[in-house]
Prior knowledge:
Blueprint: E1 3-7, E2 11-15, E3 18-22, E4 29-31, E5 34-35, E6 46-47, H1 54-62, H2 67-73, H3 79-92, E7 95-99
Antiparallel strand pairs: 1-7, 2-3, 3-4, 5-6
Pfam families: DUF433
Protein name: DUF433 domain-containing protein
InterPro entries: DUF433, Homeodomain-like_sf, WH-like_DNA-bd_sf
Amino acid sequence: MPYVLAARRIAVAFLGADLAISGGEGDTMNFDRITVEPDKLEGKPTVRGLRITVETVVRLVAGGWTFDEILTDYPDLERDDIKQALEYAAASTNVHFYRLQEPA
């Protein structure tokens, strides 16, 4: 049976430094530590306006770094910054697969 990859609509709302992601079903998450500034780092999501991208944090964790190691090498970060960067990355990749029914 055929399958289709259907990405949920992700609406991003910018309210000052606050950012919210919604899957459209009332499951909105607020990311008050994640900022997007068009003039900084090509508009990539960063942590609290620092020049540390969400991508950098995710890659460090994926590379096996512990939170304590990240905090030692990036003293401007806080533990909650790392957690929220991971939550943001997970929310931004929210994708679902739907099985298509055969026509009757």
